[in-house]
Amino acid sequence: MFSRTFRYSLGLVAVSGAITVSTIAFPGTADATELKLGTFVPPQHLTQRVMFGPMAKELAEKSGGDLTIKMFPSGQLGKGPVQQYKRVLENAADITFGIQSYSPTLFPRTMLVGTPHLWTAEEATKRLWNILDPHLKAEYSKVKVIALFTAPPNVVLSKSKKIRTMADMKGMKIRASGRDVSPLLKSWGGVPVVTPINQVYRSMDTGLIDLAFVPVAALIRPWNLHEQTAAIAVGMPNPVNPLFALMNKKVWDGLTKKQQEALDSVSGRALSLKGARAFDELDQKAIAFAKKSGKIDFHELSAAARADFQKGAAVQIEAQLSALEKSGDKDARKVYADLLK
Length: 341
Prior knowledge:
Blueprint: E1 3-4, E2 9-10, E3 22-23, E4 33-38, H1 46-62, E5 67-72, H2 84-89, E6 95-99, H3 121-136, E7 143-150, E8 154-158, E9 173-176, H4 182-187, E10 191-194, H5 200-206, E11 211-215, E12 231-234, E13 242-248, H6 249-253, H7 257-265, H8 269-293, E14 297-300, H9 303-326, H10 332-340
Parallel strand pairs: 4-5, 4-6, 9-10, 9-11, 12-14
Antiparallel strand pairs: 1-4, 2-3, 6-13, 7-13, 8-11, 8-12
């Protein structure tokens, strides 16, 4: 689904259509290739500002305008995060940004990075890339990987109740990013409610959920959950959400060798770590925001409370590995061991 053009979008500004700031023409590029990158997040989202916008600019510069990217944020090429993998396979967009946990059965080994630990996004992303070549290639055989990275670890945001121990979680309706994390939340006494991130605000506001299990950066823009949060609990071992930017395989195969080299030079591991580090930095800003607000109770779990939560985490890890083995993946524990190295 790529078109021919000699223009590219530079920078990031929220407009009604694609993201554009200025249009630059390169001499002799009348037959250049333009890729359509679709995301479900708004233009001001971190991935747009830190990853995809700069990537588009660098790609146009490195290719001399021969290969460019036009971005379509806010679900313009397909609403919501759930179907982003399907959309790239069907070429509704040439490149899509999405979340593996909405299709965990398609990425069972990738989801091992989401086992509950205390990893930063940067650390988890490094671990993910360390096992990509030896263990994950089959899960991405139908696409071209542009980026694989993770969001930071989650915290518990509460509409009203303060969470001090695992007992405080009992019976509470808590947002889960996907079915994969539901067993963990159940082991803590919660009632998981799978909710896309763009629906969490409304779900807290209407009482569909009592707690939100999300990265602390969701407190601030674009999700603004601080408006629904009275208390925060941090320090429990918990999953990080793996994220992807994937490209349609046929579109990739249709690029020239020089175009492929240009795209490889601005994507992959380096782009992924850039996004992960930015997520970690944003987390620290959100924590500072919460502490300074004077309106949100910020609590770090005690060692004793953390140990109780850890027991549930161990159960989740074993359940995930056992499920992989039962599905026929005899190397599941080897993959997990390599992930931990």
